[in-house]
Amino acid sequence: MDRRKFTFGMSLATMASILGVDIVYGALMPKGYQPLGLQDPDPFKLFNKDKEMVVLNNKPWNMEAQAHLLNDKITPNKFMFIRNNGRIPESIDVSNWTLTLDGESIKTKKTYSLSELKSKFQHHTYQLTLECGGNGRSEFNPPAKGNQWTVGAVSCAEWTGVRLRDVLEDAGIKSDAVYIGYHAADTHLSSDPNKEPISRGVPMDKALQDETLLAFSMNGEDIPLAHGHPLRLVCGGWPASTSGKWVNRISVRNKVHDGEKMGGTSYRVPCETVAPGSEVAESNMCIIESMPVKSLITYPKSGALIKEGQKLNINGHAWAGELEVSKMEYSIDFGSTWQNCSLEKPANRLAWQHFKATVSFPKKGYYEIWARATDSNGKGQPMVLPGWNPKGYLNNACHRIAVKIV
Ligand SMILES: Nc1nc2c(c(=O)[nH]1)N[C@H]1C(S)=C(S)[C@@H](COP(=O)(O)O)O[C@H]1N2
Ligand SMILES: [Mo]
Fold first, then answer.
1. Domain containing 150 — which CATH number?
2. Which end of the chain has fewer CB atoms < 10 Å from its terminal CB, N or C?
């Protein structure tokens, strides 16, 4: 028999807790047998992902892209990273899906069906950059716990939905509103129904932006299950953890939302730079808001071989949270000199921007191409790792690829 079908030492209770329900005839199950429900399905097939995507964790599912997979201007599902904090909802009844608006600062608590949301409010479509706050975490030293993202926890898809603002205004917001927080249908890994895997939010001014959507489609189709079907909050340019998937409730708060993963070291960094490895008091930790300027060379793939005398066309994307990218440069001499890339305007605010350049190399040999974006406030990407923080967030060091001229 296939050895993978057996688990040793896992108690019935543990298996039941992972499954989220009792194993009714558990006492009759052969010893050491692993129930089919606990065997991992092929994640690439399950989520329609490309085979070159990299699985970082299976409980919960976390998967990232590699730089060269992100070459499309609009990220297709097959190359979109997955970041889950809990278990993906198993049964979604679209026809009975509702969104409730509540909280201290909502005038009237209100529940909308999904079809009501779609028919009552105007639809808007934006390309929105979503980057996990922990993208680049794998580089930090001392290392930070959590998914060891390299560069691939970023996407820019085209999201269609209604404006959160329109829905909030329909229900009515009190003048003391400070923050919104989302609640969603995914379940905690412990199966404790009273625990939420994540419940984050944004201040009112972000919640009320034109581009902040309650989205029901991605790239012109229903949102894929792993990315929040049937309804997702999308807050482009902010840590993607603020973009709640499978959202069924939005609370309008009269204080900073205090949901799961809003406090402690979660999605917060020291307000002032600290020495690597330092202990930081809670009161000195600040919530991450707009993401920093960053870029990615998506063509060619690192390790490319180029024939001597040939010019190389490179391209990629650059983004800067709430800001625009105003300059994009590359270097082939380890940052001694920089050349300009041509840089497109974003399709809309909060969409990543595409760059390209034609690179010539003086002779045969090994080179690295480094890329550096600068935002509209004049802030550029660092060459080396930026400020250490306990959870390894906000690594926006410049991306580099290796090429050989042969
Ligand atoms: N309900 C819910 N929303 C969620 C999460 C989650 O675990 N549950 N993860 C968040 C985090 S940390 C990130 S980075 C993004 C990832 O979005 P994606 O999986 O669609 O790429 O979703 C955010 N929204
Ligand atoms: Mo994230």
1. 3.90.420.10
2. N
Atom of ligand 1 nearest to the CA of 84: 7
Cβ 198 under 6 angstroms from ligand 1: yes
Same domain, 261 and 330: no
- Grade residue 166 by pLDDT with cuts at 50, 70 and 90: very high
Nearest atom within ligand 1 for CA of residue 80: 21
Domain count for the chain, please give it.
3
Rounded mean pLDDT, 342-350: 98
- Does 325 contact ligand 1 (Cβ within 6 A)? no
Domain containing residue 325:
294-405
Closest by Cα among 57, 64, 56, 60 to 80: 64
Q: Is residue 70 part of a domain?
A: no
Q: Does 212 map to a domain?
A: yes
pTM: 0.93
Atom number of ligand 1 nearest to Cα 267 = 12
pLDDT for 299-322, tens place per residue? Answer: 999 999 999 999 999 999 999 999
Calpha distance 60→261 (Å, rounded): 16
